[in-house]
Amino acid sequence: xxxxxxxCDGPDALSDEDGLKLLREIEVPxxxxxxxxxxxxxxxxxxxxxxxWRKKFGGMGRLQLSELKxxxxxxxxxxxxxxxxxxxxLILKESLDFLKPKA
Length: 103
Fold this sequence. Notes:
By secondary structure, the chain is mainly alpha-helical. Helix content is 71%, strand content 0%.
């Protein structure tokens, strides 16, 4: 089992892999008839954290999680490229406006 989180830990205190592992650990008591608050208490997380992780990682395996992380990284890279191109476009437009003869 993963170490208990402290009250000052933020929502990102555990990695996505740790969150996925904790979800799998919580599923065992839930399958045996335990309720969500008791299972979450035993795992050291809040109900809200459990539901957030379940929404984000529900039905996802480790391979799918790594693919998701790779896609998020690629998306960030592409967003940076688009931002750089927009900046280049703006600079070129301002240069063209400056070079145009004024009538």
